[in-house]
Design a protein that fits this description.
Double Stranded RNA Binding Domain; TIM Barrel; eight-stranded parallel beta barrel; 20% strand; alpha/beta; four-stranded mixed sheet
């Protein structure tokens, strides 16, 4: 059994892009408990008011499995355990576990703390002895242990011997600077085990892209306690990523960690934590990323249709993820057929429709279209090839005026559109807070009398990318929009050298997709000018 210790709420929040409120920390605590994490390091009481509030109120959460740990350092050299108020707040946190760190590298003792080497050993021993009088368990993090061991093995070993003699339940060997390789980590752990009898743990950083590998190497050498963070958050290049370590241990090394049922929640919890922290999820994370089981090349797709093991190292369902097939200019007919089937469309591989769609994709991707994030535009392409798109409307013309008048704070933007539905013409004008907004409102107002359900639609996201920046103002522009109605949302794409023209194509596709989705039938209306 491997004990998992999560430090997302403390070490993870030291990441450059991570910040959270105390309410966010409570939500993440509950998610980590749901995942089956054994120990959750909640923060450093005394370091900031947010963490003090967390430890004051965390006991009100109904946790089913996880235990909370407070984190701090040994008491300061010019004080005692009783007079160092920051150290004393570890006791006041009243957590069942307290984790403290101390110096293992003589460089830090002499140059950072500026104290005698023997004084540091005293701080480690006395800090642990004092805390053990007030809590059930003390975990000792031996900071910079691997660097300290290589610089001065004898002294580094003395520091963890002091922690063991003081009664630390677990001694965690910390690869704090993130620069050591797995072979070094494994060799040093083998040596440490010869003289340390308590549980050993590992805490690694990712500065040389070895945090996960070093953690696994440690487990191979008998380490039974692994520390890390969700999605690998952490200072500099991050901490060891538990979203990789946990499935590696469970599925590759046959270690009991959180269990197969909890493992199925890993992908969703990885994304939920990002959402709570207002971070964009990294699609390329192993196991839990959106792209982890995504296939783009035609040869790959043809193979996985026969047997997914050909290009997938595990069944994505084991970690709550799913297989995806991408559509691009690298696609073969297999990609198109698979993707169509995934979206509920019946497209046979060796048909003129499949060949037409594939040719259209390659042509449009060459112009800058991007269908991997625009399923609705892909659906429209397939349905057009299958002659399943009714002639709902025709956009006869449109015009957008963007006028800035003297002394006015914002420009006045007006769009007019003329559309034809079954030979009936509607002519509409609308104001907006920008040209795209004005055009979108004018078009939907014109079509609304024929198709009332369009009133449910609203643009919820609008992304613009310049495809070849070196072309300056003449560059082609890709517009990706997200539209939402009362039930779902969908994405469409448009490309042009004119941003409004690209937006027009994406918006028209979005409207037609909505009408198809609702199985709308074209009805006669009356000529109107609104």
């Amino acid at each position: 059994m491997i004990e998992i210790y999560d430090t997302t709420l403390r070490d993870g929040t030291q990441s450059e892009d991570v910040t959270c409120l105390v309410e966010d920390k409570f939500k993440i605590t509950e998610l980590l408990d749901e995942l089956g994490i054994d120990i959750i390091e909640g923060g450093w009481p005394g370091s900031n008011p947010k963490d003090e509030t967390y430890f004051r109120d965390v006991s009100t959460l109904k946790l089913n499995h996880a235990k909370i740990s407070a984190f701090g350092s040994t008491y300061r050299a010019n004080m005692s355990p009783q007079t160092d108020i920051i150290f004393e707040k570890l006791i006041r946190s009243e957590t069942p576990i307290v984790t403290i760190f101390g110096k293992s590298w003589d460089l830090h003792v002499t140059n950072a703390l500026k104290i005698e080497l023997d004084k540091n050993l005293e701080l480690i021993y006395e800090s642990i002895r004092y805390i053990l009088n007030h809590t059930d368990r003390v975990i000792y993090d031996a900071e910079h242990f691997f660097d300290g061991y290589i610089a001065n093995k004898e002294y580094a070993m003395k520091t963890i011997k002091a922690a063991q003699d003081a009664g630390a339940d677990t001694i965690v060997l910390c690869e704090t600077n993130g620069g050591r390789l797995p072979r070094e980590v494994g060799r040093i752990i083998e040596d440490v085990k010869k003289s340390v009898t308590v549980m050993l743990g590992i805490h690694t950083h990712n500065d040389s892209e070895c945090a996960v590998a070093n953690s696994l190497a440690a487990v191979e050498k008998g380490i039974a306690h692994v520390q890390g963070t969700i999605n690998g958050y952490g200072e500099r290049c991050g901490n060891a990523n538990l979203c990789s370590i946990i499935p590696d241990l469970e599925l590759k090394m046959n270690k009991k960690v959180i269990g197969s049922d909890n493992l199925k929640h890993l992908s969703s919890i990885s994304r939920k934590v990002d959402e709570i922290l207002n971070l964009r999820h990294n699609n390329h994370l192993p196991y839990v990323g959106k792209s982890a089981f995504a296939h783009k090349g035609g040869v790959h797709v043809s193979a996985i249709l026969k047997d997914s093991r050909t290009y997938e190292h595990i069944d994505p369902l084991l970690v709550g993820n799913k297989q995806r097939v991408l559509i691009s200019d690298l696609s073969g007919a297999s990609n198109v057929v698979y993707k169509a089937k995934e979206l509920g469309l019946d497209l046979k591989k060796n048909t003129s429709a499949a060949r037409e769609v594939l040719a259209e994709i390659k042509k449009k991707e060459n112009l800058g279209y991007y269908f991997e994030s625009a399923d609705a535009s892909f659906i429209m392409m397939v349905k057009r090839a299958l002659n399943q798109v009714p002639d709902y409307f025709r956009l006869i013309s449109y015009r957008v005026l963007d006028e800035r008048r003297e002394n006015e704070k914002a420009p006045l933007v007006e769009a007019t559109t003329r559309v034809s539905v079954n030979g009936i013409t509607a002519h509409t004008a609308s104001l907006g807070n920008g040209p795209v907004s004005a055009f979108d409102q004018a078009l939907k107002a014109a079509l609304g009398q024929f198709f009332p359900t369009l009133s449910e639609c609203r643009l919820t996201d609008y992304k613009v990318r310049i495809l070849v920046p070196e072309n300056g103002a003449r560059a082609s522009i890709r517009v990706l929009i997200t539209t939402k109605d009362s039930e779902t949302s969908w994405e469409t794409v448009g490309v042009s050298t004119d941003i409004l023209d690209a937006s027009k194509d994406a918006i028209c596709d979005s409207i037609i997709y909505k009408l198809l989705k609702d199985k709308t039938k074209v009805k006669n209306g009356s000529s109107a000018s609104v």
